[in-house]
């Protein structure tokens, strides 16, 4: 079930897109800005300090609603839905709009890195035992288009003690755009996530 | 001078932050969502198709107002101000909030990658001759804190033909958090930026 807070985040995602692309006149932009400021004031009546963090849901699973990649309450997150396949592969399908632009018409190379860091890292996550990135290496083969269906996937290459070696890539309509390999580590105490 | 469109983006950045952190009740959240939807409709009266792209300013310089890292019109961008020092070093100082969270209280490792991709790439940019990322390798030394002053910097290690080899890092109050090295390429025709 989508919560009121998640619907708000979806609404803000649409606002972000048109904020970049609007061509209405300055007076209309200023009027909208006032409206947004008033919305911000209403939401600020009660705020958690700092950031969202990770909370534990009713089922005891940790939920990262504020996460910049997967967080349903974070308007900056596309948000990606990470799927764990039976064979241990992880994948996600998505389309990115104007908010993620680098080269004209293309996804910023660093956004590809952000997504691959998360997707490769997800192969190393275990319930209650999150992994953090040790190293990540990216190879850019071609531009990644905005507004076209994309797929990121990753799998574990090998595990050595606390280290998981993962590999993966992003592919678009014209094939693989970026490949990645990374080492992810289960820290002692297992605090971090993402 | 800050334009009306840039002020709108600043306003939406504040909205993003409180959208994640608000604890007002569901009815208040729903009322704000309606207000945001109406703002989005107003801005949608006239839109550029697709994404912002890179446009040429009055001074002939290209301006990437929609860029996800530096774009003053993009609410997802922190936005970073990239400074080119006399010795060829590039640096930027910034603080990241709730919107960029990965591990609780920390910047997502992939956001560090996004920033380092851009900052290292900036060492290779020449007027009218942007560079694209070939490869990027990141080493994560410790968590990067949210809400604390951060500094990213990079310099050119060497140039071989069309390839620029750059190195850099992000540092926080407790020292360097992530190091990076990358190879950036000037494509023939020089189309891309970021």
UniProtKB/TrEMBL annotation, chains A, B:
One of its GO terms (molecular function) is hydrolase activity. It is a peripheral membrane protein. GO terms for cellular component: cytoplasm; membrane. InterPro entries: HotDog_dom_sf, THEM4/THEM5_acyl-CoA_thioest, Thioestr_dom. GO terms for biological process: fatty acid metabolic process. This is Acyl-coenzyme A thioesterase THEM4. It comes from the Bacteria. Keywords: Apoptosis, Cell membrane, Cell projection, Cytoplasm, Fatty acid metabolism, Hydrolase, Lipid metabolism, Membrane, Transit peptide. It comes from Mycolicibacterium moriokaense. Its EC number is 3.1.2.2.
